[in-house]
């Protein structure tokens, strides 16, 4: 590999680790980055964590032209494996979207601020105002893989200068010719779409403590408690599934209990978290970094959706499609790669602005 190619790969590792460590951009194994270099698409492998870009092998090299040919033939390039060092890595379901984009660098994140807009029926109108001057497109929700790649292809067919895609009920994609310019644009989009989080009441700590038995514990994250103490967040999360990770890593239906619930009533609950109305949120005793990061991300999104925003939840059939047999393997890979990851950074979770 030439010196300049090596330094481009180095920039990709840098930007990936940086974005992956920001809870407002990436939660657990979500998000992916890629670089097209000398006919090779270097893309984050399925189930790996961007945050670990400097620690683990997370990038898989695939032949770009072959990948594009597969997509043209209607074959999803996901699920190909390559031996990278001691590890076997596989291409993810989002490989097709990266391959069809003409730009050399593609950064895809599950940005909390963008998702808070991307779940709204009026998202395209609000974002048109906020992103004025940036070449961007709204992509209505479709499943990741070939459907998303085809939707992106047709959206940019006549506007190849498009550099920003807002994926409805999913996240943000930012493109550029190198990592530096793509990250700069991503930061600008983030700044423009940022919404201050809604404040929530202090949790009822004493009452929560009375409910923690063997199975449950009190999470340290204030936004997670806001899902229970803020009536707007609570109503929205109980209304349905806003985006795929919510269903894949958490639950298809949030469990809500009244403030007078007794410890015994929580004993048969299977979900990774329960909402105690007006009191706070309890999570499973056994820490699971993937669930914790996904739950914190969901809570941060909910705090940024205004009370009267018209929402578009995923339909039952769309949720059903997400929960196919393969998703369990994907979930397993993300959880395996997250073993030992610090679930929620206390300094962020306790930031006064998030209270
Ligand atoms: Zn995604």
Structural topology:
Elements: H1 3-20, E1 32-37, E2 40-44, E3 59-63, H2 64-72, E4 81-84, E5 87-90, H3 95-100, E6 105-109, H4 112-118, H5 123-130, E7 136-139, H6 146-156, E8 164-167, E9 171-176, H7 179-193, H8 205-211, E10 216-217, H9 222-229, H10 231-238, H11 244-250, E11 255-257, E12 273-276, E13 280-284, H12 289-302, H13 316-322, H14 325-337, H15 346-349
Helix pairs in contact: 4-12, 9-10, 9-12, 11-12
Zinc ion (ZN) binds at residues 30, 94, 108, 110, 170-171.
Concise synopsis of the structure shown:
The chain is α+β, with helices and mostly antiparallel strands.
Determine the oligomeric state from the structure: single chain
| Separation of the first and last Cα atoms | 48 Å
Strand order of the largest sheet: 3-2-1-6-9-8-7
Largest sheet: 7 strands, mixed
Return the domain count: 2
CATH homologous superfamily of the largest domain, by name? Class II aldolase/adducin N-terminal domain
Chemical compounds bound to the protein = zinc ion
Coarse structural class: alpha+beta
Overall radius of gyration: 20 Å
What is the average per-residue confidence, as pLDDT, rounded to a whole number?
91
What CATH first level of the largest domain would be assigned? Alpha Beta
Approximate strand percentage: 15-25%
β-strand number:
13
CATH level 3 topology of the largest domain: L-fuculose-1-phosphate Aldolase
Percent helix range: 40-55%
> Which architecture of the largest domain would the CATH scheme give at its second level?
3-Layer(aba) Sandwich
Poorly predicted parts: 343-355
Overall 3D form: globular
The number of helical runs is 15
Order of helices and strands: HEEEHEEHEHHEHEEHHEHHHEEEHHHH
């Amino acid at each position: 590999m030439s010196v300049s190619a090596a330094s481009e790969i180095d920039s990709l590792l840098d930007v990936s680790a940086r974005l992956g460590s920001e809870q407002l951009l990436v939660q657990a194994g979500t998000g992916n980055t890629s670089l097209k270099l000398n006919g090779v698409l270097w893309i984050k492998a399925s189930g790996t964590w961007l945050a670990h870009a400097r620690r683990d092998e997370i990038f898989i090299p695939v032949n770009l032209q072959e990948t594009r040919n597969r997509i043209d033939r209607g074959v999803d390039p996901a699920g190909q494996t390559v031996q990278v060092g001691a590890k076997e890595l596989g291409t993810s379901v989002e490989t097709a979207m990266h391959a069809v984009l003409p730009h050399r660098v593609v950064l895809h994140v599950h940005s909390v601020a963008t998702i808070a807009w991307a779940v709204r029926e009026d998202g395209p109108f609000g974002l048109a105002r906020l992103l004025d001057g940036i070449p961007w497109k709204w992509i209505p929700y479709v499943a990741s893989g070939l459907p998303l790649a085809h939707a992106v292809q047709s959206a940019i067919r006549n506007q190849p200068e498009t550099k920003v895609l807002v994926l409805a009920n999913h996240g943000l994609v930012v493109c550029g010719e190198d990592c530096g310019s793509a990250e700069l644009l991503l930061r600008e989009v983030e700044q423009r779409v940022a919404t201050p989080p809604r404040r929530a009441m202090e949790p009822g700590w004493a009452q929560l403590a009375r409910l923690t038995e063997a199975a449950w514990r009190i999470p340290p994250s204030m936004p997670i408690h806001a899902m229970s103490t803020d009536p707007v967040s609570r109503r929205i999360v109980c209304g349905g599934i806003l985006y795929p990770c919510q269903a894949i890593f958490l639950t298809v239906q949030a469990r809500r209990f009244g403030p007078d619930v007794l410890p015994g009533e929580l004993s048969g609950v299977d979900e990774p978290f329960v909402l105690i109305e007006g009191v706070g949120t309890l999570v499973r005793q056994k820490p699971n970094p993937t669930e914790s990061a996904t739950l914190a991300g969901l809570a941060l999104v909910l705090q940024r959706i205004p009370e009267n925003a018209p929402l578009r939840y995923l339909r039952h059939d769309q949720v059903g499609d997400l929960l196919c047999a393969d998703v369990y393997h994907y979930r397993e890979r993300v959880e395996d790669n997250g073993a030992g990851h610090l679930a929620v950074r206390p300094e962020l979770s306790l930031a006064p602005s998030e209270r």
